[in-house]
Design brief:
alpha/beta, 36 strands, globular, binds 2-acetamido-2-deoxy-beta-D-glucopyranose
């Protein structure tokens, strides 16, 4: 476990980058409703001279204007006076990385085809054929495929109902094959790689260029077209770390609030946890993960938790569901079939399955994304392999089971996960991996609420906490937070659990329920969430570790440079640092060795530091408050608290050097600050006579019986006289970056 040792001397540094530099800005101007082109043009030109881009739809709720950076302030001032303009935001460029697809331009490899799943086999595995036999093949269901367009050779696409190009390429031709492949998985009629819902109607919306570039505004246009065309399902072909693209996010919610079901891949950034892609991580979107032929979570599949609730809160569970996404056959651009793996492949499998489901119910029941989520979850089968809920969501798609639940469906409120039980391991990881105890910081369950009654709902009265007396419920000390408005279709219930002091020697389980009343269109529905936790006697102080989560920035908005500078192929980092996400291995290692980890999302002055033997400060980005420094100092002196700092590199010259030109967007990216804020960390360490420097080293050294790979770490430049130091001969790697450009 190199991290364990690394933390003694080095800092993980990550630095973030922001898009800047460019003489003109593309600004999205959002209106409070849909207005005609003429009305909007008049409004804008009357107010400000700017280049206004034409929109493909007559009635739009936004415009894209190009303005010179120098004019930006004047522009905002002028715009702020117009009532019908809600907000302005920068148009963002999205780049999709399709590593595997480059190979895809080859013709299919017949000799290797036996390793792949063709559509017959998938249909068998997800038992779609049973529903086909009943006559449900997606008939009457309109699916918009947001992708790279479609091949010009369309003989195998019988039901293409519309084709639009929203990009600046001026045509809908797919030269890459991605759009063609995924559209084919849904509804092609090519032998061996026909679609799962062969009778559904395809609407091809090209939003990615053949260079895999897209912009927020193209997506907004395509979404508006979907609204206008009364599409049923959108399979969204974008996934990225950015959950802060406001116009995009509000459009996603507007789409689902209109009853359109959005299905999106959860991402191919696994196996690390905390790598969920947006918008698949949203409550109202169906986020799909991938499994392989052995029914294991595919290595590439991104996994939970959602991270933007950090640091004070806790993430929600995603993906929603998993299905086959490894080596699946779909149509290639050149005739014949080819195979592909990825959650991009699993998403259309779910899209096809949902089309089959929708085609089995009348039109007036089809516009309810919460219902579809509920029946998918209800039907799903937990994997027999030991994947946790943060990897498999409700489990593997079981189409006939979901079909059955859909046929007898009655509207309801449901929870995801539907309960929490500490005795169910590893499915309930990380909860089941660490029992709770008196004196600990609260454990948080952040539960998603689905409302099958309608788009909106409201939690009325305070939810009621009801401990089970016959299972030691009286030991629980529970605080609840929740979204009063459940909109669109979903909300949350956050349960903060502490154990009362009188249970500090108790060893056993404890359970309770929470009773919730949701009001929808004048009816009140009651629903119950149950949970059971495992309680142990409060561990010894020597076993207790405090993890400081409060110092972590929420990533993105910007991007962060990699911890390991030598990973040059992926210079940007966007994983939130948390013991249940990218520091899972460290967490497990500490747990296996008898330690208990408590996570603090608040300033350290809110916590009784004398309860812990160690505080972990991992890759901090925020400053310490003077009062916190004092509190740590006092706990070190009086209570034997040990401070363990993990970090990486920091060198201001290097930070300037690693800016790079993104050829795709023509914009310059550079780290805005020094990432892991070593100067801030030093302000804490200084009171103990330590400081980290700005020379960045790498190399290997022996520590005990291990060989440590020291990747990109800092030097120690100051230590007190009596400090015990380890010495190693390492290489300065900054010089490697000091050439070019
Ligand atoms: C912005 O507005 C001010 C006052 O209205 C004007 O003096 C200035 O020239 C404008 N700036 C630009 C760059 O147009
Ligand atoms: C086709 O697949 C087989 C088996 O996977 C492999 O050995 C062979 O090299 C492949 N041929 C081409 C042209 O890629
Ligand atoms: C729970 O999740 C919701 C939705 O992401 C978020 O708004 C809220 O802050 C979270 N609460 C906690 C306590 O984690
Ligand atoms: C479905 O969405 C995923 C990403 O979310 C994408 O990779 C795939 O291409 C999409 N499929 C279709 C048919 O658009
Ligand atoms: C599941 O099992 C594998 C191999 O047996 C193991 O490496 C992994 O840690 C287990 N996962 C969980 C969540 O227990
Ligand atoms: C708690 O009880 C379990 C058996 O139910 C036992 O294995 C465990 O050692 C006990 N733990 C403590 C700390 O007493
Ligand atoms: C802090 O914890 C210590 C040891 O756990 C305890 O003795 C002390 O009373 C606590 N202080 C406060 C203010 O709760
Ligand atoms: C950055 O690293 C280089 C190379 O090790 C070193 O010479 C320099 O002093 C460091 N600090 C700054 C601020 O450049
Ligand atoms: C250290 O690096 C070597 C290659 O340089 C690699 O083989 C080894 O697995 C690495 N060790 C760890 C613990 O990452």
């Amino acid at each position: 476990m190199p991290e364990m040792l690394k933390l003694i001397l080095l800092l993980l540094l990550i630095s973030f980058v922001n898009v800047v530099y460019s003489d003109t800005k593309d600004i999205i101007v959002s209106y409070n409703g849909y207005y005609s082109t003429k009305f909007r043009q008049n409004l804008l030109t009357k107010t400000f001279i700017a280049e206004i881009q034409a929109r493909p739809i007559e009635f739009s709720d936004f415009d894209l204007v190009k303005i010179e950076s120098g004019n930006f302030e004047n522009f905002t001032r002028a715009i702020s006076k117009i009532k019908v303009i809600l907000k302005i935001s920068e148009d963002k460029t999205h780049f999709r990385n399709l590593n595997e697809f480059k190979k895809g331009l080859l013709r299919p490899n017949k000799s290797s085809s036996k390793h792949y799943l063709d559509i017959r086999q998938i249909a068998d595995l997800i038992r779609a054929d049973r529903l086909w036999m009943k006559g449900f093949m997606g008939e009457g269901i309109d699916i918009a495929v947001f992708d790279t367009g479609i091949t010009r050779r369309r003989t195998f696409f019988k039901n293409v109902k519309s084709i639009y190009d929203f990009t600046n390429e001026g045509n809908s031709a797919d030269l890459i094959g991605h759009g063609t492949f995924v559209a084919g998985l849904i509804a092609s009629s090519r032998r061996r790689c026909s679609g799962i819902a062969p009778k559904s109607n395809l609407h091809i919306y090209k939003v990615f260029t053949n260079q895999q570039l897209s912009t927020t505004s193209w997506f907004l246009d395509a979404f508006n077209m979907a609204l206008q065309s009364k599409i049923h399902i959108i399979n969204l072909s974008i996934g990225g770390p950015d959950f802060t693209d406001e116009p995009f996010m509000s459009k996603v919610h507007e789409i689902t609030s209109n009853g359109i079901i959005i299905i999106s891949a959860i991402g191919n950034d696994g196996p690390v946890f905390g790598t969920l892609n947006n918008p698949a991580d949203q409550g109202d979107v169906i986020g799909v993960g991938g499994i392989n032929l052995e029914e294991k979570i595919a290595k590439f599949s991104s996994r939970g938790m959602t991270t933007w609730e950090l640091p004070e809160g806790y993430g929600r569970i995603k993906p929603d569901i998993v299905t086959y996404g490894s080596q699946i056959f779909g149509p290639s651009l050149y005739g014949g079939c080819r195979s592909l793996s990825g959650t991009s492949v699993a998403a259309p499998v779910i899209t096809g399955a949902v089309a089959i489901l929708l085609s089995s119910i009348p039109e007036e029941r089809r516009r309810n994304p919460a219902m579809i989520k509920q029946v998918l979850a209800e039907g799903a089968k937990k994997l027999e392999t030991n994947a946790s809920m943060f990897e498999q969501g409700s489990g593997k798609l079981d189409l006939p089971a979901s079909f059955y639940y859909l046929q007898k469906y009655l509207p309801k409120i449901s929870f995801f996960p539907s309960y929490i039980d500490y005795l169910e391991c590893p499915y309930m990881w990380p909860y089941c991996s660490q029992p709770i105890y008196a004196d600990a910081l609260p454990t948080i369950f952040n539960i998603t609420i689905f409302n099958g009654y309608g788009i909106g709902g409201e939690i009325i009265n305070e939810p009621i906490f009801e401990p089970f007396e016959d299972d030691n419920g009286a030991f629980l000390d529970v605080h609840l937070e929740y979204s009063q408005k459940i909109w669109p279709w979903s909300g949350y219930l956050a349960v903060f659990i502490k154990i009362k002091p009188e249970a500090s020697n108790f060893n056993g389980t404890s359970s309770a329920q929470i009773r919730l009343k949701v009001k929808t269109t004048n009816k009140i529905h009651e629903t119950i969430f149950k949970f059971r936790v495992k309680i142990i006697p409060t561990p010894l102080k020597s076993q207790r570790i405090l993890w400081d989560q409060f110092r972590q920035m929420r990533y993105p908005p910007g991007y962060f440079a990699r911890d390991n500078l030598e990973q040059k192929n992926s210079p940007l980092d966007w994983n939130a640092d948390h013991p249940h996400t990218n520091f899972k291995d460290l967490y497990e290692h500490l747990r296996e060795n008898g330690y208990f980890i408590e996570i603090s999302g608040y300033p350290l002055t809110c916590t009784n530091l004398s309860s812990y033997s160690m505080i972990f400060i991992v890759d901090p980005e925020e400053e310490y408050f003077p009062a916190e420094i004092k509190a740590i100092q006092k706990a070190v002196k009086n209570n034997n608290l040990n401070v363990i700092a993990f970090a990486d590199w920091f060198n201001s010259t290097l930070i300037k050097k690693i800016q790079f030109m993104d050829d795709n967007t023509g914009k310059l990216w550079f780290p805005e600050t020094g990432g892991c804020n070593i100067p801030a960390l030093n302000s804490l360490l200084n009171v103990f006579g330590f400081a980290f420097g700005d020379v960045i080293l790498n190399g290997k050294f022996e520590f005990g019986e291990s060989i440590i790979n020291f990747s990109s770490g800092s030097t120690l430049i100051k230590a007190p006289k009596n400090a015990k130091l380890g010495m190693a001969k390492l290489n300065d790697i900054v010089s490697l970056f000091f050439f070019c450009n």
